[in-house]
Every structure is written in structure tokens, then in C-alpha cells.
Amino acid sequence: TLDMFKAVVNLSLAAKDQLAAGLPADIRAAFLVAMQYFQALKDSNFDGTASPPAGFVEANKTVNDYGVAVCGFVFDQ
Hints:
mainly alpha
């Protein structure tokens, strides 16, 4: 739901520095690009007008691949 997504975005932004601290440099850089988009979503009040920053698609894939390979995340189809 949108409320669940907002909670993920807001909690991620609140813990951004802590979450980024333990990541390898390349993953941290990608994570911070994803957080730029999360900030834009929050700043726009999730109204659908926020644009992803340059490199977002690649950064998001990097973060997701890391989550699957290293952290054991499973994404449903």
C-alpha cells in the first residue's frame, strides 16, 4: 500500500547514515543515489511528480542485487 511505501521511505531516510555505514563503497554510492530518489518522493509528498536522479535504475539494481546475494533478500515476482 502507499502507506507502507511511505513508511519504508521515511524510515530509510531517517536511518540513511546508519544503513550506508556498513556497506562496501560501491554499494554505498548506489544506496545514496536511491536515497536521493526517496528524498525527492518525500519532498513531493508522494504526489507522483518526483523524478528519479540520474543513474537511479542502475543504482537500484546494484542495491537490489546486493540485497539478494549478500543479505538473502527475496523479491516476489
